[in-house]
Amino acid sequence: MESVGSIILYFIVALSMIIFSVMAVTTRKILRAATYLLFTLFAAAVVYFMLDYEFLGAVQIAVYAGGIVVLFVFAILLTSKPGDNTERLTSKSRVLGGIAAVATLLIAGYALVSRTLMFVAKPAMEAPTMNQIGETMMGTGNGQYLLPFEAVSVLLLACIIGGVVVARKR
Question: Which end of the chain lies in a sparser environment, N or C, as judged by fewer CB atoms within 10 Å?
């Protein structure tokens, strides 16, 4: 049974994730959006720590909150004037964005409900060891993630190079 304090902390963290993620996509200042994204990623790390996934929480802070947001901020500072406001969305863009948001909500809700029902029917599994996590993350076999990890690193390198090229053309 969960303690009342951990349940309250979970709701506080969940509410902060919702608030900061909405603020990240609705603000017109791009550096503020990156800052709100940073707060959202830190809140996700807190959720990992609350679930006793210390490794994933540390990776969340080091890779996403640390590295990716810093990369975003440098790309923003290299390619645009950070004080500039973005233009307002037209009504057509708002309608399409609303439709996409509702569709995403429905798909995520379906996935959550179907996964919850699947896990209720199955018995509890053992927690993976650190060795198993390492082999899964850095292995090249079926269901292992070295190739997607390397693809993301090449994509981020291409984004950095593109940002520098755009900044030099200005």
Answer: N
